[in-house]
Amino acid sequence: MITAGVDIGSTSSKVVVLEEGEKILSKVIIPVGAGSSGPARAFEQSIREVNLSREDIKRVIATGYGRNTFTGADQQITEITCHARGVYELVPGVKTIIDIGGQDAKAIGIGKGGTVSNFIMNDKCAAGTGRFLEVMSRILEINIEDLADLAASAKNEISISNTCTVFAESEVISQLSTGTAREDVAAGIVQSVVGRVAGLVKRIGVQSEVVMTGGVCLNWMIIKVMEKELDVPVIASPMAQLTGALGAALLAFESAS
Amino acid sequence: MTQLKDLLSVLENVANNPAQVINKCLEEKRLMIGCAPEYCPEEIVYAAGMLPVGLWGGSTSIKNANLYFPAFACSLVQTTLELGMRGVYDRLAGIIVPAHCDHLKCFGQDWKVAVPQVRFIPLAHPINRKLEAAVEYLKSEYFRIKSVLEEIGGKPISDQALSEAIEIYNDHRKTLREFTTIARDYCTTITPSLRHNVIKSGYFMDKLEHTQLVNSLIRELKKAPPEEWQGKKVILTGIMAEPNEILDMFEDYGLAVAADDLAQESRQFRTDVPQGKDPLEGLARYWSCMEGCSLLYDPQKNRRFMLKTMAEESRADGVVACIMKFCEMEEFDYPIYKKTLEEAKIPLLYLELDLVTPSLEQVRTRIQSFAEMISRKR
Amino acid sequence: MPEKLTSRNLLNQLQTRHYTNAYAAKMKGQLVGWATSIFPQEFCETMGLTVVYPENHAAAVAAKRGALPLLEQAESEGYSVDLCSYARINLAYMKSQAAEIPIPLPDFILCCNNICNTLIKWYENIAAELNIPMILIDVPYNHGYEPTPAAIDYIKSEFGECIRQLEKITGQQFNQERFQEVMILSNENSRAWKRALDLNQAVPAPLNGFELFNYMSQMVCARGRQETGELLKLLIEELEEKIRLGKSCYEDGEKCRVMWDGIACWPHIKHNFKAFEKNGINIVCSSYPEAWVLLYEPGNLDELAKVYSMIGNNTCMEYQADKREREVKNFKLDGILFHVNRSCKVMDFMQYEQQRLVAARTDVSIMNFDGDQADPRNFAAAQFETRLEALMEIVAHNKSAKKSKEVTNNDPA
After folding, report:
1. Which one of C72, C382, C383 has the shortest CB-CB distance to A195?
2. Which of B71, B124, B334, C399 fits a 20 to 30 Å CA distance from C144?
3. Which residues in chain B have Cβ-Cβ distances shorter than 8 Å to C154?
4. Which chain A residues touch C95 with a CB distance below 8 Å?
């Protein structure tokens, strides 16, 4: 039986196609998300790659911010449940998941058998989300992917005291205009996001293994700082931003069989 | 069955279109008094022959109220002031505003300036409410409100009228208690949003008429056997569970309401006004008898135990904290009952709600995740 | 010859002693209380109780840049970031006792909501978490110009209840004679405090208003005590001397006289101070320290109830506007700087209308800025500096406009 998981984030679309709930046939990431042609394109590409058609897929589950707008799915499940399922498959000892998404940051507590025992999401403001990193990267005139490397070379990390994105923006600009090194500012930005998200994690209680998912976990500097903040080792999910799609595909397999 | 549907649609219509009821009231030349959240002595208004109208804000964007409030005032006061400034409440003969919290204190003062056409009738409850002196003091506040209403209505309010109003209100409270208990057994018919609307419609109707309708509804419901419910049940706690869309989301994800601890709903009717010789004193003493609300002084925080008991007795699968963004009263209680519920292994969802910029998709994800979590758990 | 003791030195000594004494008392097994900053201290002072003030403590923690870890701790326990930062700091401190300046945990707490109702929720949580008695003196919000007779009776009855509870907690009797002495002393200190504040009406003002925030601590923590009187006497002498010499607190004089409206922005107070100095702005007065001027006829409990009920935050729109109007005139203000304090809802939510009212009644220039009393994250230095400069420009413009008007008026034609 073949199933698929489609994870539609605010900035990217991810698809995993799975055979018998075990073998990954294809995985696709397209860097445009909800509200665009990205999800449909990603889905088509993922099945075309392995010469399948929609009819060959027994069940499709959509997840992520744009899950309700994707018409090709049989069911919608939230990214909370899908991340939990996906990470449990990859790291069976997982107890805590951290996911920093574009719109939402979340901490998920994992109970027996990979079920969600508790979860918490950030409040409405953008502090501690991918969006915050994006805005700040723009001010630093770098790609968000390069933020970690820049931050790593910091000599005198500054602290960004504001959590309000608008205020933080003016704070960063004034730091740069008074001659603070860009790498020191970058390190301050990473610290600020991690501090906010670590606060969320503490609210549900930190239990090892702690796994980070989503695109942000490719940012090794964030993982490092998070380990320091939480005082426990943090593992990057082996499938990074595809973890949610994997979980969705697994859940599709389980509900279809 | 059709009668049941008719009754529900009547009540739902009132909840969603209060203007129609208000217009009817105007035709009958009955004066109306707005009652701001959360606890107003509606009985006095009723005894004056006027219609008390509950004002609990509404989903709208802020264009005027930001002349008075910065962005971090709760959306209940923001939207009520906004609607007032737009003239939506111009037909009211006055508005009673209790000073329960810092937001409401300022709201009243700002109303006085921003909406001068609708007379401001202030009210400051005593917080040390178990003291006998508190009853005396509150009685004096109610006496002043009574005098203002007598002046507006141009006729005195008799003790007998007050006693009758209290009786009508207590009867209404009893009926709503019965409704919320029975609704639990008919979760398919009484969806979360219908349950809310049945209660909410009472804010825009004569309580006598509302009691009759809800009683008929109860009778109609009882004709069918209790419904099997496949989904999960939750308890709602907080000030209110609006905007309306969120209750539909509960339904979408198979969640029914087992019971509520909302200021807009059960907190208004779980206690009766004590009967006695002096009706104003009875009303004042009522304030000392109520329990389990973030606005009621509670140094032991008994609310946490009430919530736990409520969850156990109603066999709820979880509790949803409907936190009005920026409501400090509720935000302070949350960490306390969070601990109690966690210890009792009762799942709890923190749902931040906002009438002004609702970000409904984020709310949807939280509700759906919670539904998935409690469904997979058991 | 030993160096002359300045009021500033004495203040530091007294404040240090306040905290060390409290700790020592706890160590000796004595009861310690926590109280809100404008609780009628007359009652606990009469009983000779050791009391510390969490608001004062939270401010001190924030000024020493120690707020952030406690704020984050509170948030990780489920407290919303939107809640009052003093409350968050204190509720976290209660659990971890992690602060540079330690205060002993309380055996009882005293709460008066004349500042805000937030205090009640905050203190309820302390009482519930530590399982200790809470004494509440509720002063109903004054929607009229002053408290009604019924409200006065209610508050007086709460005074009685407070005494009963204190007697029960301590096992000692409340001494009426001592009560009278404390009331007399408290009034003397309040009068001296008012005198010190009013001396800043002089042009140029002898004291930098930011200093007021420091001296204020003594009025918060010990306004019923002898040593506070000594401190204020010293302060007044210093100020009178400066006035006699015509000395401004700034070397090159004060260019602009401004009222700071609201609580200090403690985590950024040094920055604020420098920004004022740079612009030649003197904060000659503030609504904040003035709250501890509590004058009544000693022994008259009606007046005691009234004065504690009529703290600025607990009064109506008109009363507050009248008070601000008086201050603009008495202190010859050029401007008012309003702190839109993210923590203090009760101050913020009438502020916009207050600004309009005061502007309409006086010719004062008004500016506001976003900040927070103790959460360093809710303040932007760039915004603050820009606003200050804008205020200076407006004041300068208004002054020259006024001058040219005066010239026109003096024109004999």
Report:
1. C72
2. B71
3. 126, 128, 131, 133-134, 136-137
4. none
Q: Which two tokens stand for residue A137?
A: 């990267």
Which residue type sits at A180? T
| Interface ipTM above 0.85 | yes
Q: Decide if C113 contacts C84 (C-beta within 8 A).
A: no
Neighbour order of strands in the sheet with C32-35: C50-52, C32-35, C108-112, C134-137
Within chain B, residue ranges assigned H as helices are 2-16, 18-27, 42-47, 75-85, 102-114, 132-153, 159-183, 192-200, 207-223, 245-252, 266-269, 279-289, 303-313, 328-343, 360-377
- Indicate which CATH number applies to the domain containing B119: 3.40.50.11890
State the burial class of residue C319 (Cβ atoms within 10 Å of its Cβ: 0-12, 13-18, 19+): middle
Is B365 within a domain? no
C132 has a chain B CB within 8 A of its CB: no
CB A85 within 8 A of CB A250: yes
Identify the H or E element spanning C238: helix C226-244
**Residues on chain B bordering chain A, Cβ-to-Cβ distance under 8 angstroms:** 325, 347, 350, 352, 354, 357, 359, 361-362, 364-366, 368-370, 372-373, 376-377
State which amino acid sits at residue C217. Answer: S
Cα C399 to Cα B277, C255, C392, C393, C396: the distances in Å are 66, 11, 10, 10, 5
> Closest partner residue to C377 among A123, A163, A170, by Cβ?
A163
Chain Cα centroid distance, residue A237: 10
Q: Is B127 close to C148, i.e. CB distance below 8 A?
A: no
CA A158 to each of CA A3, A181, B92, B198, C163: distance values in angstroms, whole numbers, following the listed order: 48, 9, 56, 56, 52
Parallel, antiparallel, or unpaired: how do β-strands A13-19 and A23-30 relate?
antiparallel
Domain span including residue B114: 20-155
Same domain flag for C170 and C208: no
pLDDT tens, B93-140? Answer: 999 999 999 999 999 999 999 999 999 999 999 999 999 999 999 999
C143 with C119, same domain: the answer is: yes
The answer regarding whether domain A1-91+239-257 maps to CATH 2.70.40.10 reads no
pLDDT tens-digit series, residues B208-261? 999 999 999 999 999 999 999 999 999 999 999 998 899 999 999 999 999 999
* Statement: residue C405 has pLDDT above 80: no
CATH code at A93-236 = 3.30.420.40
* CATH number of the domain to which C284 belongs: 3.40.50.11900
Within-domain flag for C412: no
Would you say B261 and B291 are in contact if contact means Cβ atoms under 8 Å apart? no
Nearest to B373 among A68, A116, A123 (CB): A116
Of the pLDDT bands very low, low, confident and very high (cuts 50, 70, 90), residue C408 is low
